[in-house]
Amino acid sequence: MEVSLLSKFSSRFHWDFRPNRLTEALNDKRCTGARILDLTESNPTHAGFTYPPEIVANLGDPRILNYEPAPAGILTAREAVAAYYSRRHHPVDPSHLLLTASTSEAYAYLFKLLCEPGDQVLVPRPSYPLFEFLAHMESVEIRQYPLAYHGGWGIDFDALAAAITPRTRAIVLVNPNNPTGSYVKKSELESLIQLAGAHNLALISDEVFSDYALSADPVRVETLSGVDGVLTFSMSGLSKIAGLPQMKLGWIAVSGPGPQRREALEKLEWIADTYLSVGAPVQYSAERLLHAGEDVQQQIRRRTSTHLEHARKSLKDSVVNILKVEGGWYITLQVPRVRSEEEWTLNLLAAENVLVQPGFFFDFQSEAYLIVSLLTHPDIFHEGITRLRRHIQSASSA
């Protein structure tokens, strides 16, 4: 008797799962044993930082043997996150926090909370290419609004307003944006609150890179956790702020008008209670991990600042232009349009063994941009930038 195999899967899986040309070329290179200068590194645990030994010791708390199914998160862990905000001079009440395993899970919770199937959320363009996947998993539609570049990045409010429809439920911000590194400004936040209030929309602010400003700016918004004019959800986690992606602890700070905030927190707890995904070890260790992670964060800040300065000096007077960046781990390189972004990335890999990401991975609206990570190990970064300049200069003058 033959057993029939399931041949019909959910329409959520509508993407083309075949590897793109850059992935195929990279796999071929690695099969030859070539030394790849990877300028896309985004994992701090692979970037040569020194992790304090107490991070491992902190996981030996005997309380981890106790199971405390607290939907919003164990109180001591929420108090540790609240203390993190207080140290940044942005007080948050622990009762206004809900813990998640990651910001990706936080997005899923918020899309469940705010949207019916077929509803829409507005997301920035360019930005990290995760929103479409997360939204479609929740049967939610993504609509993009542009960030415009005029010597610095800013929200195109005319386009943002035009993107709102009767089915729009939230505006997503990435602050600072990944990969542009641009922060929301105070004047922009005022406009966002007015626009969201006029259309009964929530604000969702992804703030995982907020601690990585590359310079001071008094008009910059570090967090939306104190917004009280409209329902607002601010997200972050250990992955970026402590360089600990493997610890799987994120959170949502809920703010806004009292009745809305309370109802949102109540419903989020119902969602979280269904999954109870955050592990006890990381919750009981949260306070000490946040403190120990400050050392890693300082190392990351020193490296990103140093690498940015090195890139500026190395690419000065070349055909490669570094767009203005305010924070985060990445820089955007504008290169001559004598080739497409795909051709630039494939040729850099083939000729120089240098791996960068094309701008279209992040939905840049025009060509030609390449994305480089400032997190990269110094030896690789320095040699990679040298080869990148040499190759692009030569190809542009040919």
Describe the structure.
The protein is an alpha/beta fold and 398 residues long. The chain folds into two domains: 21-50 and 295-397, Aspartate Aminotransferase, domain 1; 54-291, Aspartate Aminotransferase, domain 2 (3-Layer(aba) Sandwich). The protein has 13 helices and 14 strands. The protein has an eight-stranded mixed beta sheet, sandwiched between helices. A four-stranded antiparallel beta sheet has the order 10-11-14-13, with helices on one face. Helix 4 (103-114) packs across helix 9 (258-275), helix 11 packs parallel to helix 13 (378-397) and helix 12 crosses helix 13. The longest helix is centred in the last third of the chain and has 30 residues, at 286-315. The mean pLDDT is 95.
**Overall pLDDT score:** 95
Rg result: 22 Å
What's the quaternary structure here?
single chain
N-to-C order of helices and strands: HEHHEHEHEEHEHEEHEHHHEEHEEEH
CATH names the topology of the largest domain as Aspartate Aminotransferase, domain 2
Sequence stretches where pLDDT stays below 50 over 5 or more residues? none
**Which structural class is indicated by helix and strand composition?**
alpha/beta
Strand percentage lies at 15-25%
Name of the CATH first level of the largest domain? Alpha Beta
What distance separates the N and C termini? 66 Å
Strand segment count: 14
So what's the overall shape?
globular
CATH architecture call of the largest domain? 3-Layer(aba) Sandwich
Sheet bearing the most strands, described? 8 strands, mixed
Count the helices. How many? 13
Query: What is the helix fraction of residues, given as a range?
Result: 25-40%
Going by CATH, the homologous superfamily of the largest domain would be Type I PLP-dependent aspartate aminotransferase-like (Major domain)
For the record, the count of structural domains works out to: 2
Strand order of the largest sheet: 2-9-8-7-6-3-4-5
